[in-house]
Write a structure and sequence with these properties.
This protein has about 130 residues and is mainly alpha-helical. The chain is rod-shaped and about 110 Å long.
Length: about 130
Amino acid sequence: MSDSTTLQKQKSIVESDDPFERELQKRIRNKNKKLKDIKELEKKIKSKEIDPKEEQLEKIRAKAQHQADIEEFQAYLDLFKKSQKQTEQKERDMEKAFNKTLKETKKNVVTAIADILTIIAISQQDG
């Protein structure tokens, strides 16, 4: 995934109420910030604006790992969101089935009451 795509995905993230999702979003933001800092550092080194120190070179060497971490966190986030959508769909399906069963049960109860009232009316006529 390119850096610009990663940044676009990160910008499109809306804070979630779910703690797991929020944590993944936070980690992605933090890694993107580190990548941005590394890019700025690389730019300064390339333009000979600074003479890099060992610590700065270590940051640059960590760039690939930060990118890999972002991809991993994004994969977890995508999987989590997919799972949430599936769960929501199952809940809607269950609610729909419950409402259908409830409607049928109400209809059967009304029919049973009507049958009982008919039997009572017939028995009173006979009796």
